[in-house]
Specification:
The complex is a heteropentamer of chains A (337), B (309), C (339), D (329) and E (523). With 337 residues, chain A is an alpha/beta fold. Chain A has a domain of 85 residues. Helix content of chain A is 30%, strand content 24%. Chain B has two domains: 54 residues, no CATH class; 215 residues, Orthogonal Bundle (MetI-like fold), CATH 1.10.3720. Chain B is built from 13 helices and no strands. With 523 residues, chain E is an alpha+beta fold. The termini of chain E are far apart. The chains are: A alpha/beta (337), B mainly alpha (309), C alpha/beta (339), D mainly alpha (329), E alpha+beta (523). Chains B and C meet through helix 9 and helix 10 of B and helix 2, helix 4 and helix 7 of C. Strand 10 of chain A pairs antiparallel with strand 1 of chain C. Chain E: InterPro entries: SBP_5, SBP_5_dom. Chain E: This is Peptide/nickel transport system substrate-binding protein.
């Protein structure tokens, strides 16, 4: 798989994406910076894991990529074009190529529609895809089979399925338009452990089979570690660290990534380990700290962290592994570029 | 607070203006009242003079402009029927309706809170079913029918209450207030019950229960205040609707309130009085809405923050 | 930041007295479609100073067990059978008055959803003071002082100024601290924590779990941790009770259960955790889905998903039997379950 | 959420129980039959509709048959034939026949008024709620304008201008009730438009009208129908009030409200003239309220268990003393 | 997070708001109780309590021919120079002791001396001249009396001395004294630009307190020139429901209730009395098919007046045969009511139809709601009867405004054929007031007429004495057979409820002016 080198044009490229919301807070209108200069790249057939705690902006990023939100600034390039500049047929074509799997398999399926209707709903907009009803019926059966459901399930309603089966339905719906990229927003976090494994396996198999790329958003480090080729760690609207999965998780540069890894409970009871317990909570994105976002909770913070945005540093040992930090945990070089 | 008042004013006074202009134009469409105010045998010249002296010969927009110009000077015109200023007639009638409405709402709220809480305390119990059926019935009784049946039974047959009027002290209040109470009690009891049922099954009540709080404390201390907001909303709507009821009740009981005055003014094409009444009613609804918003703030700190700002 | 050493060696600590003893607890739910048994003959004990985890997936009956213990079940729920003893006293047969007296000083619960569990219309100070007002009859002023002390203890900064704030003015983690503060206000013998960190971020979860741990030590409480998170159990609990479809399928010390599971369900769960598998490779997953409550098999509850299933599993329900010291499993073939 | 067929929510969620099997899903009919009061209400309503609509075909002429010699016959006597069981009015017309025809008029005003306001209000409401922004603001302001003045007075003014007729009453009542549906539909629609399955539809490029039609409308509908059932009661009372005040149905037309009004002057000599039509209004209104309240619970998954749960084992539960059952008896 | 003091205030403010609200509420209820207790039933015996259908709009004396005002005001608060006895049609002296025609166009009045207004000032010829001038010649006030009894006529008044007054008209006016009997005397200080709500008069009572909307109290005028009345005070309240008014007398809440109906339940407290009102159906006889005499006659034949009067009117009501009741100058006592003959009516319609008259055209039958008791029922009966003879009749109940539009000229354009229920009251006592309005071909409330009838009316109006009587009798005899604009229904009677403790004999004038001085407590 792709190791992050940019020999050919990436499928998706995000540059300096910024998105703010106006919120009413204590009676005044304030600006909430959900995304503050996010840059990402994603290649065909690759899985990019996006990790972060609640409020870090990862869902906003997903919604912006799917054009459910319009960014304030920055650019998105999908296959070389900015979808936000599209309209009409071109826009519809973009809609076809990028799909989403949602976190909540209960809420993301309309309980009043049968499984068949749910899966074929996209074709009611993209009519040219499967023009005849026989084609559509056949394709529904095919998709159900693909995600491990029975063709007869097309008649059933979402509430007649278990949580895992519903998520399979959601995946089938996302596949209905034969997309190039599927944004998976916490696709397994609402599922029980035993079912979660089934769905992760399914996603893995589909990627092998169809070559689809995933943007895999999760707060569960073990899941991301399992599925992602590369990861990006977000904190307060910024990507603070990114790179191939193993070096990023095993030898993190950024103290936040390290704390995150440490805080996650582990099954492994064999040895006692030092647990880093951060103080305080994530500051509000309405009024984020100056300089380094993480400095208020960081044990390595110094005065300079409060004034200037930290530089991008590269991991000496692993190419493509970068972080924004004045005091990286591993030996690292400041960005050359 | 100031911001809040300004916002409320903008959002509420605009509809008020709409209503006023709408009523003005509609009232003019009912035609020139000259023939009602002059004797059958009045001559054409007398009619023209009458119309001219009251401006009925002007086009409607001109009359409206003239009327609106008078408002800042608190000039709301003069009654054709009585020759008094429209404002004084409306202001004299208004307190009578207000007293009626206040007594009604006070009684309704107290009864509804007690009944509703009691029913919600044990959902599906016999008490709940009975009080639900009663409150639904109460919400479905036409007030005019209730009123005349009340008069018939209590004043005519039994002779224990006066038929009408305001001359018999508190006894005069019984039938009008009871009539007006019926629907609010019915509706409000159901709302309080519903709100209390959900409040009583809310997690914070379970938490309070896990602290060892008694049931009485759970109802009065934890659930009631949370259930108050929806009840307040409905109580506000009911208070506005009381004006509807007042029209009927005041007509039947000869209560000299604003509802009766408005109906009479419409019948008599006494436009100035009608408009003064409309203005006063709309204004009081505006004030009522502000009071309700303050009530929300009183109940809930989250609302208070938006009001305070 | 603080770096603390996780004490994962609970089994070696001296055990206190049995504070909570649940015996053959069975709970029914009346539904439109008939009565279903949601909790079936569940037994476990919790001693002072130890953490017992009730582990299971959604719908396995662990939360219902907890709410049955504290007596906060919905009207459609009936306790059908069994005994719940708090320091030897049966809770089910208790008078409501005695029950109320026990709620707080002897038995307390921390709820999962801190936002809705706190009453939005009262200040947190009022709510924190309530246990003292109810059980100790303290004056408003004294109770308020206690509330401030509590807030300080659970790590809420500037308690004097925040005591008059409302719940919505606190963050999720702070609200969870407040809930814990209310629960431990009167130093109960038994503290039930129902998924106390599920809604929280991992960094905050770590803080909350440390707080719970510290309070357990400090007040010598028995903590019953209800969770679906295996890793959390591994880190926090001394003993674990694994539930499936309303039944206890395995129980014992965490070390023993997690290292040598004696029930195929426990084993399947452990293998489903992604870290166990290589990236990109398939995870070992349990096929199928848990049964509906109304369709729980009469014999072995796990028969439909069990890789070891045999004829006897479809006819006889395996009893929960001791397979090692203090380690029990409900499987006909527990010896065959191995890593 | 208003989904009516999600059995997972059928059991109170706190119990954490898994859903009961779908095979046992109850049809609305069976659910209805379990609630005796709601069943009775429905039966009565159906009877009222049948007898007023069907009955006026048979009794339509009789309702205007005058016979001054048979004026003011007291009710509950078969001496003059079954048509006079409920007595006659001053002109000797059968009360039964007039009640039937009056009922038809009342229904013929209330039903179209409710339907018109339902359709207009919910369409605008769903549209405004889905799009939010200025559309929502404008729609809500319009609703405010209508709501900011007592509806009955507005109707009085309007009916005076345009002379009272049945169709005018329908229009006036419909307009004054539009905000009810508008607000309900807007609130639900605004909530639904932020739901994930709507987001999902957006990601396919589905147009707003299609989303409203496909995803919003079917979900909002039960709520709106509940409101409409309740509102039917209100509109009927409003029509009656207008007729009572003399600006509703005009004689020789007859409606229940008008009959109460006309009978008022005979209260001392012929009480039945006002009593029976008033009673008919109450019965119809109570039944529609009962039915509405049942529909509200039946379509609300978090409430529905109340209708279906068998009541038993109270003694045992009391010891557990869940708050809603309470131990104070 | 805000600092502590802010939080304090946040907590306390709502509480104080709550107290404020409660206080306002209590104050309101408090004042409410004050209102109601202030006017509890006063000492019986000294007070007569009267309940009217509506509140007097104002007591402006120059509007007193308006029944709602006059019934309270006339001869109670203010008095005219002379008083008309409707039963006999004669004028009696009141504030004038004598009057005579001194020239063809001038009348000279001699005023009663020693009369004082209730404010203590003396009444003299200046006041009388002022009152007449204010009522008749003032255009600004738009006096009801001017329009009602004087029309376009203007008068010159002159106070010759303190007790002598002359009134002149441009043309000779044989009934000028009759007209002048409608002018109430007021002090010359009264406003000539604005109507006065609470006037000063010379009557036996003065206004004591008027709680607008609630109650009007009159007290005996201590300076009254005549005998003091039996009741020291009189209170008026008003209820629109006849049954409520009746019940109030029955329950002892009032002593007298006016305008009640036969089914209002006053029982043996009901008192009937002759009235000046006549109910009739006016036929818009210039619009087909009503322009055919046969159709108009058929309508007359179809109505069963006897049945109507027996079951729906007050029991003393009589069937009408002409527009005015007995007692009015010009009443023709030889006329007989139109007979009921359904067969004949059907035949007439059939004939008309055969001649091409569009008898199936829908005809509007218009009645004014609450014009008199049971009008709705009466209209419904008539509709039924007219339908039976083959006409297509639709009922329309309208309000006052709606009926005046159809009743008075100019009539609406293209209204379609309509029949209008009218109730005409001649309180002036002379047929001229009726026929001028209702029978001239261009009369203000007349749909059509004939030149012959117009001529008969014009000449009758110029006559005096017996000649006048005879001339008008001819008019009334001529109209039904040659014009047929009306289907007369009934000469109405009034009905009131009088408590057993009050002695009062209502008369034909009672509905226009109810003299409190004639009421006495029964021993």
């Amino acid at each position: 798989m792709n190791d992050g080198s940019t020999t050919h044009q990436p499928l998706l490229s995000v540059r300096d994406l910024t998105k703010t919301f106006s919120v009413r807070h204590a009676g005044k209108t304030k600006t909430l910076r959900a995304l503050d200069g996010v840059s990402l790249e994603l290649h065909r057939g690759e899985t990019l894991g996006l990790v972060g705690e609640s409020g870090c902006g990862k869902s906003t990023l997903a919604r912006t990529l799917l054009m459910l939100e319009r960014p304030d600034s920055g650019s998105i390039s999908f296959g070389g074009v900015d979808p936000h500049a599209l309209s009409g047929k071109d826009l519809l074509d973009f809609r076809r190529r990028v799909q989403m799997v949602f976190q909540d398999p209960f809420a993301s399926l309309n309980a009043r529609m049968s499984a068949g209707a749910i899966i074929s709903e996209p074709w009611r907009t993209h009519r040219s895809l499967y023009p005849s009803s026989r084609d559509r019926a056949a394709r529904v059966r095919e998709l159900l089979h693909l995600v491990g459901l029975r063709p007869s399930d097309a008649e059933k309603y979402p509430q007649e399925f278990s949580g895992g089966q519903r998520q399979r339905l959601g995946i089938a719906r996302a596949l209905a338009l034969n997309p190039d990229l599927i944004v998976c927003d916490e696709p397994v976090s609402a599922l029980d452990l035993s079912v979660q494994a089934q769905v992760l396996n399914l996603l893995n198999d589909l990627q092998q089979e169809l070559g689809v790329a995933y943007l895999f958003i999760s707060h569960d480090l073990s899941v991301v570690r399992h599925v992602a080729d590369r990861v990006a760690v977000m904190y307060l609207g910024r990507v603070v660290e990114g790179g191939a999965t193993e070096p990023t998780f095993d030898e993190p540069l950024h103290p936040y990534t390290s704390a995150l890894m440490s805080a996650a409970p582990s099954l492994d009871r064999a040895g006692k380990r030092e647990q880093i317990i951060l103080e305080g909570e994530i500051p509000s994105p309405i009024n984020p700290p100056s300089g380094c976002r993480f400095r208020t909770r960081c044990w390595r913070a110094t005065e300079e962290c409060a004034t200037v945005t930290p530089p991008l540093v590269h991991d000496d040992a692993a190419p493509g592994h970068t972080a924004e930090c004045f005091h990286p945990l591993q030996p690292a070089a400041a960005a050359a570029s | 607070m100031l911001y809040f008042l300004r916002r409320r004013s903008l959002t509420s006074l605009l509809p008020l203006l709409f209503v006023l202009v709408g009523v003005f134009v509609l009232a003019r469409l009912t035609g020139d009242p000259t023939s009602l105010y002059l004797p059958e045998s009045a001559t054409a010249e007398q009619r023209r003079a009458f119309a001219a002296s009251h401006g009925f010969d002007d086009p409607v927009w001109k009359q409206l402009l003239h009327y609106l110009q008078g408002i800042p000077h608190l000039d709301f015109g003069t009654s054709l029927r009585t020759g008094q200023t429209a404002a004084s007639m409306a202001l004299r009638a208004f307190p009578n309706t207000l007293q009626l409405a206040f007594a009604t709402m006070l009684i309704s709220v107290v009864v509804a809170v007690v009944l509703g809480s009691w029913a919600a305390y044990r959902p599906n119990s016999l008490a709940d079913r009975i009080s639900s059926l009663l409150s639904m019935t109460a919400g479905s009784v036409p007030d005019f029918w209730f009123a005349i049946m009340g008069v018939w039974i209590f004043a005519v047959i039994l002779g224990v209450l006066p038929t009408s009027g305001t001359d018999n002290g508190l006894l005069s209040w019984v039938l009008p207030v009871v009539t007006l109470c019926v629907r609010p009690i019915g509706v409000l009891t159901q709302v309080v019950r519903g709100a209390m049922v959900s409040a009583l099954s809310a997690p914070y009540v379970r938490l309070a229960r896990s602290k060892g709080a008694t049931d009485v404390r759970l109802v009065t201390h934890h659930a009631l205040r949370n259930a108050a907001a929806p009840a307040l909303t409905v109580a506000g709507d009911l208070a506005v609707g009381l004006i509807n009821g007042a029209v009927v009740v005041e007509t039947i009981f000869g209560w000299p309130g604003i509802g009766k005055l408005m109906i009479d003014s419409i019948l008599q094409r006494d436009f100035a009085v009608l408009q003064a009444c409309v203005l006063l009613t709309a204004l009081s609804i505006f004030v009522l809405n502000i009071l309700i918003d303050l009530g929300y703030a009183l109940l809930d700190a989250r609302v208070r923050e938006t009001v305070k700002a | 930041m603080t770096a603390t050493s996780l004490d994962l060696d609970g089994a070696t600590r001296p055990r206190g007295d049995v504070a909570l003893d649940v015996e053959n607890l069975s709970v029914d739910i009346r539904t439109p479609f008939g009565t279903v048994r949601a909790v079936d003959s569940v037994s476990f004990t919790a001693r002072r100073g130890e953490t017992v985890a009730l582990l299971g997936e959604s719908g396995c009956g662990k939360s219902l067990t907890a709410t049955s213990i504290v007596g906060l079940v919905d009207p459609v729920v009936d306790i059908a059978d069994g005994a719940i003893r708090l320091d030897g006293e049966d809770l089910i047969g208790m008078s409501p008055k005695r029950r109320r007296a026990a709620a707080g000083p002897e038995l307390a619960i921390v709820f999962q959803d801190a936002l809705t569990a706190l009453n939005p219309v009262y200040t947190v100070g009022t709510q924190l003071a309530e246990p003292f007002r109810i059980h100790r009859g303290l004056s408003r002023k004294e109770a308020r002082a206690e509330a401030i002390r509590l807030m300080e203890r659970v790590g809420i900064p500037e308690p004097e100024s925040r005591v008059d704030s409302y719940p919505h003015q606190f963050s999720g983690g702070m609200r969870q601290r407040l809930l814990i503060a209310i629960a431990v206000a009167l130093s109960p013998a038994v503290l039930l924590a129902d998924e106390p960190t599920t809604a929280l971020d991992v960094t905050v979860q770590a803080q909350i779990m440390k707080l719970l741990r510290d309070l357990r030590e400090e007040r010598d409480m028995a903590v019953v941790l209800i969770t679906h998170d295996l890793a959390l159990v591994a880190e926090q609990a001394d003993r674990v009770v694994v539930m499936y479809a309303g039944n206890v399928v395995e129980s014992g010390p965490v070390d023993a259960v997690f290292s040598t599971p004696k029930h195929p369900y426990t084993k399947g769960l452990l293998e489903s955790v992604p870290v166990a598998a290589e990236r990109g490779a398939d995870l070992k997953s349990i096929g199928g889905a848990p049964p509906e409550l109304s369709a729980i098999p009469s014999a072995c509850v796990y028969q439909d998903r069990c890789p070891l299933v045999r004829d006897i599993c479809r006819t006889d329900r395996p009893p929960l039997r001791e397979v090692a010291e203090d380690h029990a499993a409900a499987c006909h073939f527990s010896e065959e379950v191995s890593r | 959420m208003t989904t009516m067929i999600d059995p997972t929510d059928g059991v109170a969620p706190e119990t954490g129980a898994t859903p009961p099997p779908r095979s046992g899903r109850l049809s609305m009919w069976r659910l209805l039959l379990r609630d005796r009061m709601a069943t009775v209400a429905l039966v009565v309503l159906v009877l009222i509709v049948l007898s007023t609509v069907g009955g006026s075909l048979i009794l339509g002429d009789k309702s205007n048959d005058q016979d001054l010699a048979r004026g003011a016959i007291a009710p509950f006597s078969l001496d003059h034939g079954w048509l006079y069981v409920l007595g006659s009015d001053k002109l000797g017309r059968s009360m039964i026949a007039r009640m039937v025809v009056g009922g038809r008029t009342t229904l013929a005003v209330a039903v179209p008024a409710v339907l018109i306001s339902l359709v207009i209000g919910s369409l605008i409401g769903m549209w405004a709620g889905y799009h939010r922004g200025w559309r929502e603001t404008v729609a809500m302001r319009v609703a405010d304008v209508i709501m900011s003045f007592p509806s009955l007075l507005m109707a009085v003014v309007v009916l005076y201008v345009f002379s009272p007729s049945a169709s005018m009453i329908v229009v006036v009542l419909a307009i004054t009730r539009i905000p009810i549906y508008l607000r309900t539909a807007r609130a639900e629609s605004a909530e639904l438009q932020s739901r994930t399955f709507v987001d999902a539809a957006r990601t396919f490029g589905t147009r707003p009208t299609a989303i409203i039609r496909r995803h919003v409308f079917p979900i909002v509908l039960p709520t709106l129908l509940t409101v409409a059932t309740l509102d039917f009661c209100y509109v009927m009372l409003a029509e009656s009030s207008l007729s009572f005040l003399g600006i509703g149905i005009q004689p020789p037309g007859v409606s229940w409200g008008l009959m109460v009004s006309q009978g008022r002057q005979y209260l001392q000599t012929a009480w039945w003239l006002s009593f029976f039509p008033g009673l008919a209004i109450v019965v119809t209104a109570v039944c529609s309220t009962l039915l509405a309240s049942w529909v509200r619970i039946a379509t609300d998954p978090s409430q529905r268990w109340r209708l279906t749960v068998p009541r038993k084992a109270a003694a045992r539960r009391r010891r557990q003393a869940p708050i809603v059952e309470g131990e104070v008896s | 997070m805000s600092a502590a003091p802010n939080l304090e205030s946040a907590r306390n403010r709502p509480r104080s708001v709550a107290f404020g609200l409660l206080a306002v509420g209590l104050a309101l209820t408090g004042s409410a109780c004050g209102v109601s207790s202030s006017s509890t039933s006063s000492d019986f015996g000294d007070t007569v309590r009267i309940v009217l259908p509506e509140e007097p709009p104002s007591l402006e004396p120059c509007d007193s021919s308006n029944t709602g005002d006059g019934v309270v005001e006339r001869s109670n608060i203010t008095e005219p120079l002379t008083e008309l006895d409707l039963a006999t049609g004669e004028l009696h002296p009141l504030l004038a002791t004598e009057w005579k025609k001194t020239t063809p166009t001038t009348y000279t009045y001699t005023l009663r001396s020693g009369v004082k207004f209730s404010d203590g000032s003396a009444f003299d010829a200046e006041d009388a001249a002022f009152s007449i001038d204010r009522t008749v010649n003032n255009t600004e006030l738009g006096c009801f009396v001017a329009g009602y009894v004087f029309g376009d006529e203007k008068v010159q008044v002159k106070a010759v001395d303190a007790t002598t007054l002359t009134v002149s008209t441009a043309e000779p006016d044989p009934i000028l004294p009759l007209r002048l009997s409608f002018v109430e005397m007021v002090p010359s200080e009264m406003s000539t630009t604005e109507k006065v709500r609470e006037p000063i008069g010379t009557g036996p009572y003065e206004i004591k307190k008027w709680d607008a909307g609630q109650k009007l109290t009159l007290a005996a005028n201590p300076k009254y020139w005549g005998d003091q009345p039996a009741y020291k005070t009189a209170t008026y309240v008003w209820r629109s429901e006849g049954s409520v008014r009746a019940a109030m007398v029955k329950e002892g809440e009032a002593d007298l209730a006016t305008q009640i109906g036969p089914d209002d339940g006053a029982g043996d407290l009901e008192v009937q009395f002759p009235d000046d009102q006549t109910a009739a159906l006016r036929i818009q006889g210039y619009i087909p098919p009503l322009n055919d005499m046969r159709v108009r006659q058929a309508i007359n034949y179809a109505i069963d007046r006897e049945g109507l009067v027996k079951s729906l009117f007050n029991s003393d009501t009589t069937i009408a045969e002409q527009l005015i009741p007995e007692g009015i100058t010009g009443f023709n006592d030889s006329l007989k009511p139109w007979p009921t003959d359904v067969a004949k009516a059907k035949q007439l319609i059939a004939e008309a139809k055969a001649d091409g008259v569009p008898t199936s055209t829908p005809i509007r039958l218009v009645g004014r709601s609450a014009q008199f008791p049971k009008i709705e029922e009466i209209i419904q009966v008539i509709q039924k009867e007219l339908t039976e003879i083959g006409l297509n009749v639709k009922i329309e109940m309208v309000d006052t405004k709606g009926s005046t539009e159809l009743q008075q000229r100019p009539f609406p354009k293209n209204p379609g054929p309509y029949l209008l229920m009218i109730q005409h009251g001649n309180q002036a006592g002379d047929a001229a007031f009726s026929v001028d309005q209702y029978m001239l071909s261009n009369g203000f409330q007349s749909a059509f007429g004939t030149p012959e009838l117009d001529a008969m009316i014009k000449s009758a109006e110029k006559q005096e004495g017996d000649a006048r009587q005879a001339a008008f009798e001819k008019v009334f005899a001529y109209e039904p057979t040659h014009v047929g604009q009306f289907a007369y229904i009934a000469h109405m009677t009034g009905m009131m409820a009088i408590a057993s403790g009050v002695d009062y004999k209502p008369n034909v004038n009672t509905e226009n002016e109810m003299h409190l001085a004639e009421m006495t407590p029964k021993k």
